[in-house]
## 1
Amino acid sequence: MKRLMLLAAAAALCTFQHDAAAASVQPQAEQMSELPPLYADELARAKNFVDEMMAEGLVVPLPKDPGGGYTHEQHKRNYKAIYLGGQIYRVTGDEAYRDYARDMLLEYAEMYPKLGDHPAKANQNVGRLFWQVLNDAMWLVHAVQGYGDIRDTLTSAERAMIDDNVFRPAAKFLSVDSERTFNLIHNHATWATAGVGMTGYLLGDRDMVDRALLGSDKSGETGFIRQTELLFSPDGYYTEGPYYQRFALLPFLVFADAIERNEPERKIFEHRDGILLKALRTTVQLSYRGYFFPFNDAIRDKSLKTAELYDGIAIAYAQTGDPSLLSVAEFQDRTVLSKNGMMVASDLAAGKAKPFPFKSLMLSDGPEGKQGAVAVLRDGPTNAEGEPSTALIAKNTSQGMGHGHFDKLAWQMYDNGNEIVRDYGAARFLNIVAKEGGRYLPENETWAKSSIAHNTLVVDEKSHFDGDVKLASAKAPSQLYFSDADGLQVSSGRIAEAYPGVLMQRTLIVPDIPGLEAPVVLDLVRGRSRDAHQYDLPLHYSGHIMEFDFAVDSNVEARPVLGEANGYQHIWVDAQAKRDDGKGALTWILDGRFYTYRFAGNGPIDVVLGETGANDPNFNLRREPLIMLRASRENGQASFASLLEAHGKYDGAAEQTVASRSRVADLDHSWIEGVDIVRLTLKSGQRFAIAVSHQPDPEAAHSVTIDGETIAWTGFAAVVALTDEGN
Amino acid sequence: MKRLMLLAAAAALCTFQHDAAAASVQPQAEQMSELPPLYADELARAKNFVDEMMAEGLVVPLPKDPGGGYTHEQHKRNYKAIYLGGQIYRVTGDEAYRDYARDMLLEYAEMYPKLGDHPAKANQNVGRLFWQVLNDAMWLVHAVQGYGDIRDTLTSAERAMIDDNVFRPAAKFLSVDSERTFNLIHNHATWATAGVGMTGYLLGDRDMVDRALLGSDKSGETGFIRQTELLFSPDGYYTEGPYYQRFALLPFLVFADAIERNEPERKIFEHRDGILLKALRTTVQLSYRGYFFPFNDAIRDKSLKTAELYDGIAIAYAQTGDPSLLSVAEFQDRTVLSKNGMMVASDLAAGKAKPFPFKSLMLSDGPEGKQGAVAVLRDGPTNAEGEPSTALIAKNTSQGMGHGHFDKLAWQMYDNGNEIVRDYGAARFLNIVAKEGGRYLPENETWAKSSIAHNTLVVDEKSHFDGDVKLASAKAPSQLYFSDADGLQVSSGRIAEAYPGVLMQRTLIVPDIPGLEAPVVLDLVRGRSRDAHQYDLPLHYSGHIMEFDFAVDSNVEARPVLGEANGYQHIWVDAQAKRDDGKGALTWILDGRFYTYRFAGNGPIDVVLGETGANDPNFNLRREPLIMLRASRENGQASFASLLEAHGKYDGAAEQTVASRSRVADLDHSWIEGVDIVRLTLKSGQRFAIAVSHQPDPEAAHSVTIDGETIAWTGFAAVVALTDEGN
């Protein structure tokens, strides 16, 4: 608490007060000239935007278009103008901005009462100003903040006009007419409760505030407080994934900031062990080079440089003074015009920033942290932002509601600045009218959500839980083991319910292997059942094929489709191979680096080299390569051991190529008494075993004898040097 | 000349002399500490490289591997070490580097005399140290420079050993045993003559020098001097294209620099109106964002940041003092350890750099400039390097010898930092052993060189000149017109011999059209013949399809191949359309920008939407999209008018999309009395005509009446405003 007090004091010293009363106090010129650069830029950017809007005059069109359409974008521009206009007035005292925000709101006061359901209504969650109620909530969250900055300076007639014809009915629309959405435990409800609650504080409407905090019935079983308890895991992971987490964070933090100002006794930022601030840090951890891991229905171009996070970082910094948040703001090169933003900009200018501690971590999922987890394994040299070059993500989380994908035990990997093992994200072109009005595309259901679109085990060509979100939401994987030990990071997960009677287990290991470059990833996947099944293990990689060590039948003159349904219909088959020994290797290049994927199955393996884009008449899908391993097992027992090896360098400018071929000569996998033994023979003759006991006890000693060699180690897993070949 | 004298004087003031005599003079510590940053970095980089080599000891393996293989790369590292070792010794006086270079050369003296043809011989141009003689020439060009820096300090026994067992036999191998290559008018011969000539100067062997300058028979019909007259056009364009031009420039400029030092009376840099320096500037002009236009057999990752140009820029700067060359060196962030490099580094540190004047220009091709031309039309806001954002290239050049592609009248366009309309370049993975040992791939012949692989007109599914390089080399297109007029840039070219009895003509215009963003490109293509023909016009674009305004038959479940041969066998057909009115439009997105390609044919057009990669069992081709327009014309008369319109913006971070759809409502093309009239109707109702008289006279007045509207203009072409729709 002491730190908080100090910060509060520091904040108080700021030139600009957040309460409207002081808004008319015009800052002195020298004060303006002394603004820290980031804040000054923000102010200039805001003025620039609002000035352009003012030049266009007040444009408040009758709602008509869906996302991306003209009226949609105009109402977005309008709420941004009200929000910024109010802030600029508070900061500069320039009444032109106050008047503009006021007049804009008076225009809405004219129109709003006449509105019914939006004409571009797409489902039951219809809005008034926008095609979906979510956007109406976003409008309110922004507009009410701008209104708060000017309201005290308006005439009582103006206030009444705006209060009664815009904010009260808008709050009523969200919390009463749209009660179904309002009482969900879902980020859409977070936006709605935030808008309604902040409106309540501004209008001094206790009832409105209580409904926002505790739900329509004020029972507390829904509403904002409950959302902070159910939507984040104890580790601050948001069940829908980082793309939605950063989206949900804005209303969470902005409303929390308002609660803190209006009801500090609620200690909202300490609620549930400071879950909201924890959630913000977690959001940053779930990114690579600034871009969020594209779990579930994610738009891939979303990065930390997103409006929702500027306010969040500023609020969190004001609450904690954590200097690593300053480096996030520095990366964003943005802040907000609140006193929190001023604090961020000042301390950044004072050189107080420290690198954000990107690290390996395991984040439990579920309100009690009992619905699986996501494991992030980071490794390698760090860049300027202090971020390691390699990040492997094991997604052993729950379904993540309606935007969740059927991707149990899936993984992803980044290296050398690129996504090497891919997650497709959402099939959607946000706000691009030509693509279904910017909404989710049909291929989001037929491809993006399907299991085969992910790096996971697919049984009998069906998606996990047969693609049923209800079933999927009932059962989550379990995280069996996690270790961030240097040189031997591990994540192991399991799920028994993705397919009836099939136990799926995956262990991912990032070991240091003498003689190999980093990263090396060992992937152990097992499917166990009493019944015969077909097991498919796709790897969606990024790059151009250099070579493979198996003979293929190529479909070079007519390209068939892999399957009929569940995503298989979207895969072109370039080539197929039969590997009786279950072994093979594929090498590709990406951005001057080579990657070899080497696999060994417990019996014959069919290999498919394919590309996405089949059955896609509207060219909605990206065309991306994949390799799929298929094991048809009469006894229902399938295992895949594969090694992803990064190696070498291609420098086109220098015309230099180094180590373009794998340094591994052979990969051999055995499963003995519940123990996985993977033996590697390097071309140098060096031999190593990666032994996995699957026993978490770090002290427990294990020993296995195989082909006359005894391999001994302690703990869950180990890299054991074997006698070199020829010795 | 006065400027040259001054510069010579300035050079003389440099701390470091180029003649070996002064090499033993150790520079004072303070002098070393005063090295300009770029030079100091270069010295550190060179030391770092040679120190590593010295740590490994002398490794001079018997030649065995092809390009990219171990012995190939080792001998490349060795000549680099000899070259840099000598330079470091000259600069620092540190004898360890002298001794290392000497001992390395003594190792070669042991081995070289025993060598025969390289075991990885691929064709008749076999080398000794390398699989092709070209690399042996490169070895000599570098090694002789390093040797030159230390030779005077060696014992006469050492000199004799190295002279007689390495340099004389190497020069003999290149100029006598490999006389065929040596006497070519080709960049391979430039490397050979440079190596032999510089060896001649060093060993004081007049005969060697004369053979290098004038060819084996000293007639002057071949040899270095003749190469400077035949390999560049009067505008300094090198017929093989920029990728080879930058490669050829090193021996041209390095040898010229040696000639200037040894025989200043030859005034080599003034020879043919200063062609060598002109060629260097032209090379820089033929790049976008530092990357060379990938004409012909080009490796796409080649940029100005390439070893061959560091020396060239330094030599040219020493000769001219042109400050815009400093900004090229600044972009390269590299220089060389010669006194020229010192001059570049010093003046750069002194802040003398000026932006390089990237501009629209026409470069004639052919020794007399009569074999066509390449036109570069640049436009748009400039970046930090002063380079315009848009560059359109019309390639109306001659074939460009064996590495030339059958791409008469082809074009390319860059915008917003990306290649929007593509040239495939070479099908080759340089030095990557798995890909045919890093040599050209079979697909270089079957795809990369073919006409259909380029943005040009293809008749009856055959390549230009039926793919016969001899025929192709005999006839070049003619550049009919060129204008870099602001707001209406034009290039027009024609060729009558690419197909018997077919006249091909293409006019590319970059106009400013009120109401449209820039760039807008109008492409007018005409094929004229007395006989029936099928005319195909492919556009190889970069991006993801957003929409098209025509109904298609989609091949979504089995993907057929477009044709049998001449590159058609490598094209998958995704969809086909029949347009009886000959009209249609396709919109794609790339890097947040939208592009709409709108076309109108003189009659029915078949449209193919396709992707490369068919009949490619080894995955040697990149998979890239194309749209192809097909006009089957009984009367042999085909015309295609198309408009490429850049528009809008997609900002994933801000979730903002603007103008994702074309602003053009209709495109209409007429051909009246030898005049092209393209009428544009914008969605705003605005109407414009782009009128093309094809008459170069800027004063000549033209007038055409069409649909009751009279369109009048003067000169070759004009944008004429028409009465708006509805007025």
## 2
Amino acid sequence: MLNKNIETFLGFDADYKDSSFVIFGAPFDSTTSFRPGTRFASKVMRSESFGLETYSPYQEADLTDYALFDGGDLELSFGNTERALEQIEEFTSLVLKDEKIPCMIGGEHLVTLGAVRAAAEKYPDLHVIQFDAHTDLREDYLDQRLSHATVIRRIWDLLGDKKIFQYGIRSGDRPEFEWAAQQHVFMNKFNFDGLENTVEKLQGKPVYLTIDLDVLDPSVFPGTGTPEAGGVSFVELLNAILTVSDLNIVACDINELSPVYDQSGVSTAVACKVLRELTIAINKNNEMGGVFNG
Amino acid sequence: MLNKNIETFLGFDADYKDSSFVIFGAPFDSTTSFRPGTRFASKVMRSESFGLETYSPYQEADLTDYALFDGGDLELSFGNTERALEQIEEFTSLVLKDEKIPCMIGGEHLVTLGAVRAAAEKYPDLHVIQFDAHTDLREDYLDQRLSHATVIRRIWDLLGDKKIFQYGIRSGDRPEFEWAAQQHVFMNKFNFDGLENTVEKLQGKPVYLTIDLDVLDPSVFPGTGTPEAGGVSFVELLNAILTVSDLNIVACDINELSPVYDQSGVSTAVACKVLRELTIAINKNNEMGGVFNG
Amino acid sequence: MLNKNIETFLGFDADYKDSSFVIFGAPFDSTTSFRPGTRFASKVMRSESFGLETYSPYQEADLTDYALFDGGDLELSFGNTERALEQIEEFTSLVLKDEKIPCMIGGEHLVTLGAVRAAAEKYPDLHVIQFDAHTDLREDYLDQRLSHATVIRRIWDLLGDKKIFQYGIRSGDRPEFEWAAQQHVFMNKFNFDGLENTVEKLQGKPVYLTIDLDVLDPSVFPGTGTPEAGGVSFVELLNAILTVSDLNIVACDINELSPVYDQSGVSTAVACKVLRELTIAINKNNEMGGVFNG
Amino acid sequence: MLNKNIETFLGFDADYKDSSFVIFGAPFDSTTSFRPGTRFASKVMRSESFGLETYSPYQEADLTDYALFDGGDLELSFGNTERALEQIEEFTSLVLKDEKIPCMIGGEHLVTLGAVRAAAEKYPDLHVIQFDAHTDLREDYLDQRLSHATVIRRIWDLLGDKKIFQYGIRSGDRPEFEWAAQQHVFMNKFNFDGLENTVEKLQGKPVYLTIDLDVLDPSVFPGTGTPEAGGVSFVELLNAILTVSDLNIVACDINELSPVYDQSGVSTAVACKVLRELTIAINKNNEMGGVFNG
Amino acid sequence: MLNKNIETFLGFDADYKDSSFVIFGAPFDSTTSFRPGTRFASKVMRSESFGLETYSPYQEADLTDYALFDGGDLELSFGNTERALEQIEEFTSLVLKDEKIPCMIGGEHLVTLGAVRAAAEKYPDLHVIQFDAHTDLREDYLDQRLSHATVIRRIWDLLGDKKIFQYGIRSGDRPEFEWAAQQHVFMNKFNFDGLENTVEKLQGKPVYLTIDLDVLDPSVFPGTGTPEAGGVSFVELLNAILTVSDLNIVACDINELSPVYDQSGVSTAVACKVLRELTIAINKNNEMGGVFNG
Amino acid sequence: MLNKNIETFLGFDADYKDSSFVIFGAPFDSTTSFRPGTRFASKVMRSESFGLETYSPYQEADLTDYALFDGGDLELSFGNTERALEQIEEFTSLVLKDEKIPCMIGGEHLVTLGAVRAAAEKYPDLHVIQFDAHTDLREDYLDQRLSHATVIRRIWDLLGDKKIFQYGIRSGDRPEFEWAAQQHVFMNKFNFDGLENTVEKLQGKPVYLTIDLDVLDPSVFPGTGTPEAGGVSFVELLNAILTVSDLNIVACDINELSPVYDQSGVSTAVACKVLRELTIAINKNNEMGGVFNG
């Protein structure tokens, strides 16, 4: 009590040097065109996580079984998108250099670009698995090339064809769907059908997993800027996470929680539970095989 | 920019004369006995529609493929129910006379009576398909014969036996269910089972489609005056719309969105998406066969 | 109109002496560790019940078919947990002595302990069926032995091994799950699988049914203190209630509605509907066989 | 506890026959053109009144000093304005015939017309004091003669020139202000300046007091359909009530609370306190002089 | 009805060419560091303005007395601050070139910089009067020179010493207050004391008036990103506007309404009323003297 | 960044040993009879304080001028009131023993009893100044002697007659006001009139200052469990704090913020500002005279 007040996500109690898994917040939403607010996600998740148990009855494992570190939130420049992405890239690179797995909490989806840049530098053969309602494949959006609506297209600029695997997609403009259909990225609409095939194909590859929580149905997760009806259930997302956790996930993120739009707190509780399950799934796997190191 | 500010539902950009499909708002909720607020639906849907894409990945078609007109909101007399219904009937008749399909955005469900009166005048053999949680079959309600709870009974007064097909019903009083069981209307409780049979039976008939959005489960669509647990999912509703869109739909409406009861905005987003899919489904069909003209 | 204003749950219009089924509120939430508010549940349910129909299209029966009494809310001591439990026990005993079935509306789940104490005194062979997201099996919680998180453990102190049957459980700490696995209680995780087996096993036994409404998925029921993703649907809960209503239910409760966390009112509407269906299910069964009387 | 649950406004515990002051709700808002919701006011005020003390430190008197009766809510026809006004008139007449003072809780301001009709029949020389932000003097509104925006004009139709005294007015259209300036009614804009003069002038006259709570500044009372900045404070309204309570108030009402627009509950708490102070002020005065009886 | 739906702020019905006063929205909030949402202000104000009267009982004048044009909202680049400011500058210049008075609805306060650049180009001797809770005088903020917290400092870069007059200031960091005290700008803390002196001093000068609505007390105006207790009342702000309207106001703005933070709608209603009074005050003055044309 | 995430109230950055002023949270609301939620106050205040400046333009001083320590929140037993008070007393005693000034953030007002017990042990001549809407002088409440409604009476048990000075009181039951009038405590109703006299009288005495934030008008501070119209303004409270800060304040608290009831965040912002001003006022004074040490 007589030390300064420490606030970390529930169960993330280890010191940095002892941890192999590091979460941090990237509170940025300046390019959000419709309803901003994801900047509050990481802060609110930390605060509300004390309503969560550390134990997963799904995986029969506990956050306390692992050494987990919470680095707090990056201080990002609002209104200067490129600089914010650099700050994210720098921090992610630092974590990766120390042979730990970074797990970023957005923020709008654009923050993924900063983390992927860092991961791609360390792992040139990086693949990306994306769970999302939206394609995010626009070439530009409202005259901008750096936007939540273009983020996966910018990642494709970096990684090239056939490195990106999208699941759950149910919104975008027609050119995005047509571009995807030209084999630039793999896209599975509406759900996780065929995810096992992707997992099989990516065995042994370094994988970045990005989870836009709006892949969930808005009934499950109303607290997001652009809710899209027709999404997956929590159990479907959980199973998808367990499925891909067999892969060598070298970095990951969850994003697009916007707590202000769900005053029941349910969306935040769901996000916390997704983070718990994701953390356990990746760390369980690592126990058995270690961090992928290219 | 130097013209007056125009606000239409996303993608409804055509002029009246060029359009074959016309939406308009009927912001009326004076007989709502429990929780009013549907009067704001059309206004809020227009305003929020810019968070929606014009493209449907479900139907692989785009609102921009069609000439669509948004006539704005009718100015209706609050507190004078009969006069408001006349105003709705007049406007609907005008649109029908010009050989366009009217699509009304309620308002409480009673507004449907005004539009059906207009449609029944032009199409004496009119049939009605109703997606709804509630029977709306009372003879009167709180001493009134014109009420959101009696609207389908009033339509039966007009059309007679075996012209009305109800799906998704899960609320009403016992006499309503008993009356329906006397073959006055066809009622399928809880879901859309057997909708194909109705579609088969109504081939070649003029059909009015009325969608009370509370047919959706309240988890999907909380923003309504009388939420009824145990409803259908968005995908089930979407499929039902696609199923009936093969018919000759001469007029339609969606109603009972009450935005104030869902501050997440999810209900409005769902309503916008239903309108997009309904619009595309009807216009796709018309491309192939033209407006039904008796 | 010129009598004092009476406010009862919809359809609970009978006098006490004529009724065989008695609801009452237990507005207590003092041990709630995360988000309080269940104290308002019974009051809000009464007030909002007039948005509900008395007729169940699921069971084709009506609340008005039975003589039902609403005893209002107990006045409980906030901040004195043991005293509040005594008050609940006293009232429940009174109702049981008069050969009526008490149905308590919580409050936090701890209130169940008071009612079970009364029921166990009358029915020494009492069994408990619990629908819940949480195990509630802790030995103590935040230094307290009387808590919403320990309530079922305290009931086990009273009833002993193999008398408690838990369904829908998806949250707790590891020791709780391990303790349950030692055959102290029967626990079925996540859903109602195998409920028929429990019903078969408990034929002829006096049963207390406790429904923590957070067994429902938060999409269906966000208005609760500790929402847990991955729950059951309304229809699944309804079917589970119908399944166990064949048993001799001597007392029951529904708890953990916290209206303030769901401003759409949907959670309250769901709770009202659960109460309607539960009431009809139990009273239908009693019509056929009478109240269990040991 | 074993009687049916009674719910009255705090401190209104007497039987009808013993009371000289009778409150009742008129939950009607069908003509509300902007944001409906006042229909919930009386119900919510009853429910929330238990957060209030019965004692007034302002008047050093207590609700429990008087015999006060709460008649509950009238069941009014939604969507049939004229019928609803008749129902209000009938009930008010009944209370007046029994030599009691009726105090109506609206509803939209139009409900005042029903009560004034009853009062004017018993007291042909009736005068009206109105505390309000709005003139409500339109000849008609949205084609209707019966509307919340025309209610005082309709009362003028009944009572004639120089019988109506308006205070706090700060909104209306220009013709209303011009019409008032022609000496049809007395209007004091913005505040209660000069209220003592009106009180002096109306000594010995039967007075109907109608308080549209939107006379309060929206900072104090946000929960109303048409909030108008620049209103009076709670203490100013309290003093105005105390000032006019010296008159022979034969009937009164408070109206236009719309609880749904103020989720903090502050507006409801203010309305409850205004009702407490108004009740005590009128009953204190009556103790000294008895009900005015023409 | 059969024209496209036009939505303008209440009473702004004239065509561009006929108007001498032009409002437009600048929906930008990308640099907002705390709570974003001002991007919705202009849209919501238009939508809610129909709850307002066009007539001002304060000024005894009506919006309909003037030819007023609403240019709708600019489409601004989110996340590219410099580009957004250019877009604002271009539009403002166009309006100024046509000898009309532009009145911008923000948006965060940074948008003022774009409009002031345009005004300062046309009127080299431009002075700025600022009503605001915050100094906005930082040299940079979170590493950025273009920010809502630096906007007035950037305007000082443009205009130089003794051209800026701040009223109502009650928040900032110490260096800002110290810098202001060095006579770079005139600052009056907390209220409008001495505003008459400023008006006297600026007779005959071209003045840009910028109203950050958070100058109002948060009780009056809670719907803003950074509420600061201790502000002015609506009537005080109204009087301040009337006081400065004697000056030659060549352009103006109101900003920092963030509707999502005030679900009662009161803040939006206040902003609409401020815009009505500001519009009438400036146009009344112009009737007497014409637009200042340097 | 690579240390654990620390979250303290803005500007409370010092280590414990270096500080003379220590804030800590007492998140307890188990006896709250009406609307709970104050348990979240300290957590939310910390989180939201980053929207505040550290500089006070009122006192022309800065939080950063002092060494201030934030001890985080106590972990209190919910549902065991006496144990919670002991925990508060222990911590407060520890801080007092180290010659620092404790400043507790409630929680419901009952928490004050724990802190006063500690202060009265160290300072036998302790006096209490209370700013509050409520008397809190009941002998017992709902059968309990330890309650938010009895807290000042319990403190009187401890300190005896003429040690307690109440300001701003406007709610209680009649016996409380009568008991106070018997000279047990000094009570000033409604406002701070005469506070200078109290300050003069208490020169040189050890003083505990307890601020129930509901002394503020609900328009300024809606986020509290029992809002009472007719309260003081922020500036009035600020001046009262400045007035009493001349005294030897040996401990203090602010309590009864309930953030969930004010979704605008304004109440939390006000509470943060009160804490800033209170902290600066006490520390400024101590600079000149040192901590009172009996």
